[in-house]
Design goal:
- By secondary structure, the protein is an alpha+beta fold.
- Helices cover about 35% and strands about 25% of the residues.
- The chain is built from 15 helices and 22 strands.
- The protein has an eight-stranded antiparallel β-sheet, with helices on both faces. Strands 3-2-1-4-5 form a five-stranded parallel β-sheet, sandwiched between helices.
- β2, α2 and β3 form a beta-alpha-beta unit.
């Protein structure tokens, strides 16, 4: 039985895990960098150990220090959260070798689905629709151009080991392809230490829709519905909602079945996400699997009433999922806004610093996941997200109205945040009508004065 968990992360997700563990009666160990000594998860965990300097490379990415802390504190399991080492197959394998439970999938599944070319081939063999493209990495420009011409422009060049929009470039013809191919390889090499890329047909203005997966170690694989993550800037999600305003019941059912098939093909255990692109005609294509809990998991929790972090821990403990696919009901609509310490009026420049006043909104149908508080200093070393506002109601209109109300109550002084941007989006007709695609933000900025965000 799991009795103590090391939380190998920081910020709001670390705090979220502390809370889930406390409700389950499980002790927690927080590991933290020198920059995070003020962080709430450090204050609220049962124990805390500093593992290094302020930069992630000196602390949260140091697998050796995390394993050492786990052994010193005699923990049973490690929860990696998202980011940092959460999708690092080598780290998961190290945990397994040290007889420490990694709260996530097996290292084999992480490795399989972490290589996008292998992942695509794996789900394709299981009959899951995939975007037309190369049968794996392409190692030279001449081969890549031939593939691009065969599938037809525009094409997208993607890093095999990519994520977060890095090592990803779009080409519309042979001339632009030559340039973008080498840029993508260089970006991939610098970001991931692996310059391999593959080629896919570029689906113009699609919806980005992902399905939440839960799988236990006894062979049961379920999906908990979809999240529409189409509102993005430079491939970084800004707003997520569930259910998608675009999917019909029939399309949702078909996509859910294929999401489960993809997870089964990966012999998956624990929580994960199957991501699809969906075109205007309802054709959908697998693009990748995220082998971890997602930032946007709360919208699924509020729609289904299922605590995903608790389920991760129970599955890691060897327990069977206590419900079947037919038991999962979608009775609410939920929207999540990522509250980042950035200035949207100045090209989203980061805004670290000390928060003078912090007041989180409340009331019926409002949830805030955040580690911020009045007097907290946001360090400049990590991702700029300082919180997530999740609002839910009986239907989408209620969720939008509630989100706008809550954003107006959310007070953060001393730094710039994305709150004004989210308020503007909640009033935008294209968003309200449920017509946002992955091209939404580019169009929104072209027609919206930036002084609305200041």
């Amino acid at each position: 039985m799991i009795q103590k968990i090391l939380i190998a992360n920081r910020g709001e997700i670390a705090l979220r895990i502390v809370r889930a563990c406390r409700e389950l009666g499980i002790k927690t160990l927080a590991v933290y960098s020198e920059a995070d000594v003020q962080s709430l998860h450090v204050q609220l965990a049962d124990e805390a150990i500093c593992i290094g300097g302020p930069r992630g490379s000196d602390s949260y990415l140091r697998a050796d220090r995390i394993i050492a802390a786990a052994e010193i504190a005699d923990v049973d399991a490690i929860h990696p959260g998202y980011g940092f080492l959460s999708e690092n197959a080598k780290f998961a394998q190290q945990c397994e070798s040290c007889n420490i439970k990694f709260i996530g999938p097996k290292s084999k599944s992480i490795a399989m689905m972490g290589d996008k070319a292998v992942a695509k081939d794996t789900v394709k063999k299981a009959g899951v629709p995939t975007v037309p493209g190369s049968d794996g990495p392409v190692e030279n420009e001449s081969e890549a151009v031939k593939i691009a011409r065969k599938i037809g422009y525009p094409v997208i060049i993607k890093a095999v080991a990519g994520g977060g929009g890095r090592g990803m470039r779009i080409a519309h013809n042979d001339i632009s392809f030559a340039k973008e191919y080498h840029v993508a390889r260089n970006e991939a090499e610098k970001a991931f230490g692996n310059g391999s890329v593959y080629i896919e047909k570029y689906i113009e203005k699609p919806r980005h829709i992902e399905f939440q997966i839960l799988a236990d170690s006894h062979g049961k694989v379920l999906h908990l519905g979809e999240r529409d993550c189409s509102i993005q800037r430079r491939h970084q999600k800004l707003i997520e909602e569930s259910p998608s305003p675009f999917l019909t019941p029939d399309l949702r059912k078909r996509m859910g079945k294929f999401a489960v098939k993809a997870a089964e093909a990966a012999e998956y255990e624990n929580a994960g996400t199957i991501e699809f692109l969906v075109d205007a005609k309802g054709n959908f294509y697998f693009i990748e699997m995220n082998t971890r809990i997602q930032v946007e998991h709360p919208v699924t929790e509020e729609c289904t009433g299922i605590d995903l972090i608790k389920q991760q821990i129970l599955v890691a403990n060897g327990e069977k999922l206590a419900f079947d696919q037919s038991d999962i009901k979608f009775e609410k609509h939920a929207i999540e806004c990522r509250i980042n310490a950035e200035d949207p009026a100045r090209n989203f420049i980061p805004s670290p610093g000390t928060i003078g006043l912090y007041y989180a909104p409340g009331g019926h149908g409002v949830r805030v996941d955040s580690h911020a508080y009045s007097g907290y200093t946001i360090p400049p070393y990590y991702d700029s997200m300082i919180g997530k506002l999740i609002c839910y109601g009986r239907d989408r209109q209620t969720a939008i109205q509630r989100t706008y109300r809550a954003l107006n109550e959310y007070l953060i002084r001393g730094i710039k945040t994305t709150i004004p941007l989210h308020k503007a989006i909640m009033c935008d007709p294209t968003f309200i009508e449920g017509k946002a695609t992955t091209a939404y933000m580019e169009d929104f900025f072209a027609r919206t004065p930036t002084d609305l965000f200041s």
